[in-house]
Design brief:
Blueprint: E1 11-13, E2 18-22, E3 30-34, E4 41-45, E5 48-56, E6 65-69, E7 72-75, H1 81-103, H2 108-119
Antiparallel strand pairs: 1-2, 2-3, 4-5, 5-6, 6-7
């Protein structure tokens, strides 16, 4: 990722599993979204990139909430603190279920071997 991001550009690094852009509201904040099966996904379309799920900048002053769909910003409502907490809890549960299913049929040594291989990029 470049240190200076340009407005209106979505930067994607497949190698590092991340995307970044400047907040769509124009506040200038850098927004980073991890990519993966339990995180965000980026899809290339003829109209431009789409990012799912929505991007809620709850830790930023602007509190912007939007989806990037076919290269355009689709604004969503701001969430209450309770809804943000529930959304974060839901994310944690989805990750837990995903990784539990992924490792359900593997033994300890298989998981250990996968971890060792991941350290060396294999």
């Amino acid at each position: 990722m470049p240190k200076q991001l340009e407005p209106g550009i979505l930067y994607v690094s497949e190698k590092f599993g991340t995307a970044a852009h400047l907040c769509a509201c124009g506040c200038g904040e850098k927004i980073r979204t991890p990519l993966g099966p339990t995180e965000w996904s980026v899809k290339e379309t003829t109209g431009g990139p789409s990012v799912w799920p929505s991007i809620g900048n709850w830790q930023k002053a602007c509190q912007s909430h939007y989806v990037i769909q076919n290269g355009k910003i689709v604004w969503h409502d701001q969430w209450s603190a309770a809804r943000i907490a529930a959304g974060r809890q839901g994310e944690q549960e989805r990750r837990k279920v995903h990784y539990a299913a992924m490792y359900a049929n593997e033994g300890l040594w298989q998981r250990f071997w996968k971890w060792i291989k991941s350290l060396y990029g294999s």
